[in-house]
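Just curious. Protein, please.
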Amino acid sequence: MGSQAGSFRKASPETPTINEQEKRIKRLEKLKRDLQNIKNERDELQGILANYCNKDLNDRINFETFMLKMQHDQVMTNLKRMTQEISEALSKYKELTTENQLYYFRTCHLLTECNHIKQKVRMLRKENRQLFAEQKALEECNIQRKILCKEVSQKNKDKYSKQAAGKQIIVVPGSREKAAVSNPCA
């Protein structure tokens, strides 16, 4: 057992060194590929430059003129498009400004109308409270009037019943009417 444990200990440190060497080899191969790619690009650029230098000076000027003309055309196209976009944006801005003003005026009108309605509601509520108070007062007055009427009616009934008991009613022959003697209410 002790010898096996020792062999594991020795194997462990060697394993990372193998991985490190593999990593280094892979990195070296990658650097070689990159170097080869750079050399190929250099050779290609040297060929283009040699071809470019061997051409006639007029050809180079024509080529540069052509490239400048293409760039100029592109810039002018972009400028026209930008001008058109600015014009469209300005038109949209004016349209939105007009729409915003309309909404502003509508909002102001609606706010004024809302405030007017709120004021009217306050006045109607106040009037309603006053009418309710008047109604309560009239109801109380009506109750008192009914009580007074009952009391007066009761007093009158008592008074007339006393008078009727003390006096007799005279019937005149030949007339259909009854006459009360000394009865002021008849």
